[in-house]
Amino acid sequence: MSAYLSGMRVLVTGASDGIGAELAVQLAGQGVGELIPAGRDRQRLEETERRCDVPCRLVTADLSNRSGVDQLLTEIAGVEIDGLVNNAGVGLGGRFADLSIEDQDRMIYLNCQTVVRLSHELLEPMRKRRKGFILFVGSLIGFVGGPGMASYSGTKGFVNRFAESLRWELADQPIRILLLAPGVTRTSFFRAAGISEEHIRAGQMDPESVAREALQGLLKNQATVVAGARNRFLLFLMRFAPRWLVGAVARKIFAPILNEEKSQDQV
């Protein structure tokens, strides 16, 4: 149980699966007062709710468009939110020019615009109460880049930099801002992005471990959590490598993705 999280009301987007579901479950275990799990799949949200031993207020909404975000904000209007977990996200794999621009637009909206809008709506009330946190789920690929996931890499690069900049901006405020940057994680993400898991097995982590590291970082008021010792080591090495070398290695790693037909989904 955490004295910091005790009694808080926390909104978790993308809570129907993977890291989002595990963050919700572990937040419940830390003694939050209420959870608001949000996602597109009501049945899977109910599965998350059953694993959480705290009151839950489920919100079913498609956050990849403005009307879905409006719906979520309408359902939580007037509710004091102490914590926001910006986890909802989607990926697309394949050559940029071959991917539907409509699919990419939806991904960019969900991964970037939804994150900005929810953060903007919920931050000011937190500042007035001088209490709260925002946890952003970025990605290791946002630091590195990935041919075959160009638009997705760009959206996560945005989240990584946005979270870091917002933390600096709020340095004199009692609001905690944490960036979680996971690497390859065993969730439905890659299947939903149309990427064969045959290509991304190395270094996979389970979502429970990723969520655990994230909450440890939040409780310590860390700025960034790169989940997994292997991922932290790879990021450390990358800082000393010229970008042309990083690009050459990334192209080799992601090469199989470039030749597969892709689809997308959302959690």
Describe, in short, the structure shown.
The chain has 267 residues and is an alpha/beta fold. The protein is 46% helix and 11% strand. The chain is built from 10 helices and 7 strands.
Roughly how many Å is the radius of gyration? Answer: 18 Å
End-to-end distance, in Å? 28 Å
The quaternary state of the protein chains shown equals: single chain
Helix fraction, binned, reads: 40-55%
Contiguous runs where pLDDT drops below 50 for at least 5 residues = 192-197, 261-267
H/I helix tally: 10
Main sheet summary? 7 strands, parallel
**N-to-C SSE series?**
EHEHEHEHEHHEHHEHH
Task: Describe, in plain words, how this protein is organized in 3D.
The chain has 267 residues and is of the alpha/beta class. It is 46% helix and 11% strand. The chain has ten helices and seven strands. The chain has helices at residues 18-29, 42-51, 66-75, 101-129, 141-144, 150-169, 189-192, 207-219, 229-238, 243-254, and strands at residues 9-13, 34-39, 59-60, 83-86, 133-137, 176-180, 224-225. It has a seven-stranded parallel β-sheet with strand order 3-2-1-4-5-6-7, with helices on both faces. Helix 1 (18-29) packs parallel to helix 2 (42-51). The radius of gyration is 18 Å and the shape is globular. The two termini are 28 Å apart.
Topology:
Elements: E1 9-13, H1 18-29, E2 34-39, H2 42-51, E3 59-60, H3 66-75, E4 83-86, H4 101-129, E5 133-137, H5 141-144, H6 150-169, E6 176-180, H7 189-192, H8 207-219, E7 224-225, H9 229-238, H10 243-254
Parallel strand pairs: 1-2, 1-4, 2-3, 4-5, 5-6, 6-7
Helix pairs in contact: 1-2, 1-8, 4-6
